[in-house]
Amino acid sequence: MADDDAFASTLARDGVALAAWCGIGSSLVVETAAASGYDLVLIDQQHGFGGQAELLAGLTAARAGGLPAAVRIGWNEDALVSRALDAGAHAVVCPMINTVAQARALVHAAKYPPLGGRSWGPYRASLVIDGDMLAVGNTRTRTFAQIETAEALDNLEAIVAVDGLDGVVVGPNDLAISMRGDRAIDAPDVLEAIERIRTATREAGKIGWIFANTPDYARPLIMAGWDIVTISTDIVWLRTAMTEVVAQARAIT
Prior knowledge:
This protein is α/β, with parallel strands linked by helices. The chain has helices at about 5-10, 25-35, 50-65, 80-85, 100-110, 125-130, 135-140, 150-155, 155-160, 170-180, 190-205, 215-225, 235-250, and strands at about 15-20, 40-45, 70, 90-95, 140-145, 165-170, 205-210, 230. The chain is globular.
């Protein structure tokens, strides 16, 4: 059965929405995230692994687990946006949006006319989203621009004001690298920039989503009022758990 508006329903709950960041390319990981209590899932096709078949399997697993699913595409290209949304993603996240023109190009690819120029062909998406897709597609599928460079900061207020852009995703690691040339994500200037992004996004009436490397880093972000928070990735969760098991076993011997 198709949902009414799973993404909106998730954000309407009390408290921050927790998003599982899945890049391994395994539908089983997506199902496990649903069973673990996450509120939504992101399938990463920028730094993650897997092609269209793995994407479809992951979206199917998310639906089976009752989670709205976002897809981070590899780059700001019309074909990548269309394939993710037509496959049934509730949202598309695009990396490295640095200018208003790039944000508008993302919206153009993701939204149907007259707001955008998305081509018709939502064969699986029509099974996932309730209602006539042409009538509801522009509001039931979300577009997120990743703000993760110094150039994006220079254009921040204009980017978040773009009509049809539903929200932003902040990548502190790339932001720190761009601003400072290192990964000092807790440096005062980086934290100040992150708070500036949150404020501008909130003032524009858009959805604010941020990635955190650890629960400790996420704690003040959750307290600050970000709408969606991601803590680490499936690859890191697996490596961390494996490392801990090996360490415990070595301690026995």
